[in-house]
Specification:
243 residues, Arc Repressor Mutant, subunit A, Four Helix Bundle (Hemerythrin (Met), subunit A), 2 domains, two-stranded antiparallel sheet, 4 strands, 5% strand, globular
């Protein structure tokens, strides 16, 4: 019986089909990526009404992939869908930001500790080049460029630690942090972030795991200060101002 199962490709009497892997992102994935990027950059601000039909028209696609993208964004907490009524960009949730920070800290602390034991001189040079780019972005007043390079710096640490896949997990969960970062990203806050990157870089260069863990924890904990600063302005984009 066992030999027969092997010969027919059966397992416990169940035939399993082969999965066809798509080589490129689906249309729904592409729509999702564009809309999420606009939301995280605050180009689609909280409370903005967004139409499935209008998005489909502007992007030159059918409504089905847009509907799929909307549902995915809603599951992640970026859209509020009211059937037969309207779809709007969700308000910013402090709870979601702190949840994302917890996940990110857990992953990045371990990653930075591990990086201290495996990072090469070439890896350190790659991080140094990204910090130079961040410095240039600060001087140019280009906050979007700074934000991109900031992400690339953290991603590069994951890669140099040999766990590039960890960045995929971080990227999936950190979107709520990104919106508050964009709200507070001015020249002063960029300089603080860059200074914190330098401290982390120095710890990695010294292969000091404890210092690296402390540096990344302090860096990510600063999100709480950013929340307080933005909420002190009574910003209407928060859903839980009384929290």
């Amino acid at each position: 019986m066992e030999d027969a199962a092997r010969q027919t490709g059966m397992t416990d009497g169940i035939a399993l089909p082969q999965i066809r892997h798509a080589a490129a992102p689906t249309v729904a994935d592409q729509v999702f990526d564009v809309l999420q990027a606009r939301i995280l950059r605050l180009e689609l601000a909280p409370k903005t009404r967004i139409s499935e039909a209008e998005v489909a028209r502007q992007m030159g696609v059918s409504r089905q992939p847009v509907r799929e993208a909307f549902k995915r964004l809603a599951r992640l907490g970026f859209l509020t869908i009211r059937p037969q009524s309207s779809t709007t960009v969700s308000l910013i949730s402090e709870e979601s930001i702190l949840r994302a920070r917890f996940i990110r800290t857990a992953l990045e602390v371990h990653t930075c500790r591990h990086a201290c034991s495996v990072i090469t001189e070439q890896g350190l040079a790659a991080l140094a080049a990204l910090m130079e780019g961040q410095k240039a972005a600060v001087e140019a007043g280009d906050r979007h460029r700074f934000h991109t390079l900031d992400d690339n710096f953290h991603r590069e640490i994951c890669i140099q630690a040999g766990v590039g896949y960890v960045w995929d997990l971080i990227h999936e969960s950190k979107g709520h942090m990104d919106r508050i970062r964009m709200l507070s990203l001015n020249t002063a806050s960029q300089k603080v972030a860059l200074d914190e990157h330098i401290v982390l870089f120095d710890a990695l260069s010294a292969r000091d795991a404890d210092a690296a863990a402390a540096a990344i924890t302090k860096h990510l904990d600063r999100i709480e200060l950013l929340i307080r600063e933005v909420k002190a302005q009574d910003h209407s984009w928060f859903e839980d101002i009384a929290g």
